[in-house]
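Dissemination and training. As part of the outreach component of the grant, students in the summer workshop were shown how a complex can be specified as a set of sequence lines and then modelled as a single object. The example used during the hands-on session is reproduced here so that future cohorts can follow it. Participants entered these lines:
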Amino acid sequence: VRKVLALATLALACGGPAKPASVEPVTIVTADASGPAAVTVARVTPDAPFRDNEPAPLATEPFVPPVAHTTRLPNGVRVVVLARPAPAIASLRIVLVGGAASQPKAPMGAMLSIRGALYTGTKSHSRPELNEAFSALFVQAPDIQTYAEDVRLSVVASADKVGPAFDLLAELVLEPTFDDALVLRGIEQSAKNLERDEQNPESGARQIAARSIFGSHPFASEWPSPAEQRALTTVDVRRAFERALDPKSLVVVATGDVDEKSIVAQAARLFGRLPPSKSPPQPISPIAPLPKSPRIVLADVPAAETAFVGFYGIAPSATASDYPATSLAMDILSRTRTSVIQARLEHELGHPVVGNQVLGYTVPGTFLGVNMTLVRAEVPKYLETVSNLLAGFGATLPDAVAVTDAKGAVVASIQSRYETSEDIAAACTGLVVQGRDASELAHLSDGYARVTPDDIRAASAKYLDPTRMRAIVVGDAATLEPALKALGWGAIEVRDAAGVVLRTDNP
Amino acid sequence: MPTAIRALAVFAVAAGALLPEGEAGAAGKDASALVEKKLPNGLRVVIQEDHRMPTVAMEIAYAAGTSSDPVGRSGLATVVDWAMTHRTKHVPAGGVSRTLVRAGATTWANFVWIEKIRSTVTLPASRFEVPLWLWSDQMGFFDESFDEPMLEEERTGVLASDAKTHSSASLGQVSDFMNAALYPSGHPYRAPATSVDGLRAITRADVIQFHDRWIVPENATLTLVGDVNPTEALASIEKYFGPIPRGNGAAAVDPAPVVLEGETTLSIDAHVSAPEVWIRWPTPPLYAEGDADLDVVSHLLDGTSVAYLYWKLVDELKVATHVHANQWSRLHGSLYEVRVTGAAGGDAKSLLAAVNVAMKRLYDEPTSLVHFTSASREYLIPKVFGVERFTNRAAAYTAYATNTGSADFFSADMLRYDAVSAASVSAAARRYLPRARRVVALVSPSPNAPVTGTLVATTFTPAVAP
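and obtained this result:
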């Protein structure tokens, strides 16, 4: 019976009848490998040679991505449009390039609080009226995000509502009232969220890593403490916003089913007379290399059974020639479920680290890192294993297959940025914030195609040297510190769960 | 309101109104209508062409989940899912991830939900046969590759995951205590998704029997959305899945509706820094009358524009720091949940009293048209615009096909909200979220209690007949 079924399946695989041959279920009884009990296997699928190997790629037409166009208004405002007529959805963004890091003298958290403060009302609409106005357009209340390098307001609208949605979005930027009660409510809520983050070892660890790496650099301003957040006033936030609102820093991004001429004309009407800021955003200075000591920062979460552990270092800027190679190295090291780190770690620990996968971050121009959660007894083994792997990464890896896979993943990832109007807007915004032209999106993958294994080795040696990275461990210091000292990596900086330095223990 | 919602539903009808017509990218190819087909072995196939990008989003879903676990085997569905994606006859250990990476997949994931097991992937259209190869091997060539060492490996992995998210997690047991009070013995929603005892009890025979009962063609829906030709795609699907025989016919699960006779209050101590109050009600099933109303209720209680709970508890009384309200829509009876984290130093009983006051507004005062419109649109807008993404559309079509028998249900789903009004929302809150018939968990901070929570007392107050 099996032979007949296999032949029938083979015939199908070779272009046989369009419909599969009828397969009668076959019942067999096999011995269970676990013991004498039998397992009834009621179904057998006929095997066929085509199942032995993964299918070959099919021929497809090359993808020709649409290209973004940028228009600069006389006062410096830029308007980026990438039109794609269907589906009838558009994404609109107003971006203020230069976020928290470009205002080093602003109180910690002031720029970040713009997120809540901008949506507290305008001269024309109270906050409830804004909700009503957006809702009437079938547009969700704007998503407002603040980062170290930019502030973004975005909405998604149906194509026929783009004009009024753009007017309303612009109103938030041009006429904010900074309602005192609502701004302070937002500040308090942010402080509560920060406190909650501190209780979560993973998010707490990222904060601690950022503070440890950035030190006094303005990038640290993206990571205020709850106390710093609560110390803010509405005036602080208003001033920070007024400094950020400069025509040379303002970029409108419109993507999807939009008409470029209409968008540019509307942008000119809305922002063409925007005066320069009296104190425009400052250029952000590069981050200084990390000192060699301390290599380990231990944040104490008493009695925690698990620990969060990772290595962090300084990343190249997105426009640096070795950024693509660094990005590919990080991809090979930490890509979900095929991570080199995870494979090596599982080999060393002798068991899978499922549910606690390696995560990797590369934030262009700021920091990169790999991290994961482990039971605390395994932390020293993690540090040793990953340190050895990073140190030898350039010499032993990557092989040609790994590089090809990583390049393929990056190219697919770049293509995926064209899926929705919002994706396209986000990709264009990212480029603009990095100081690049949005049209570069169309050939972004070229820089990755040119990368060679030698480039990756060089980038790894430069950016992934474990002796120039910080090992961040968040967990129970009482049990972890002795084990970490035994590594012989020099001084250990001990912080509390909130990231405040408690002491530095020299060996 | 109805006119506005109707217009919006027309705007979104069957996702087709939002899809490219004619242009569909520079290539000038057309987006197509939905293609639905059932193979002779019962596999349901849904395909939609969309040539904006050279990618395809794919999903296979089985109408089974953690609620399909036999009594005493909590975690079986998860073990089966992990094992299937670990190794099958033609795909070596770790081969799924490696193959998908090489094929250029940008995202892929597996989900084991209460009544669904899903695999999803987005990858270049030229490689759409790769998931067909992997998934057909999981469906048709699993049993013979599954051995005892593999069971132990999966058991270890799922136990570790359970420890992180459930058995050792902060307040990880609270949900278990509540479900035990909410659902009668034998109800499919009573047991946790995974448990240490259940996982330790699982045998190889359990895994194979589960697989042969549920991971079968007639219990699956396969969906492709993206840059594919339906005729070519169907031919490939028939090649990979056509020879897989039907299963043995799983008996339909149809538990009796849950009716609470009063209020059960669970007093729970836990090593946490602030008190919490969790409240749960059994509510109408997915798509049943009241389900859509309760979706909107959630956005009245805990929305971005309207937030009765947050306004009262956090802003006004300052007794809470976080609130959450949600209708968990399920096929055999939904679950409505309100969860409130109190301010440090407060107590759970006082917090519950404040929650009752906040909820009273929903019961006693008519919902204003402005609040209703904001809340209902807040729920609908992401659903409507979400269909621009291939993955979302594949997920929606798969869910509709699995749950209703037809993937072409987007319009009907959206139009359910046409029947919802400010008045019906208030009525639904009074009818389905009664104060006298619910399960309440009062979580009190206790430094000597476990972080997972320990049940210290249960009280029951019968509801007074109306």
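Chain B touches chain A through 97 residues (CB under 8 Å). Students were then asked to discuss how this feature might be tested experimentally.
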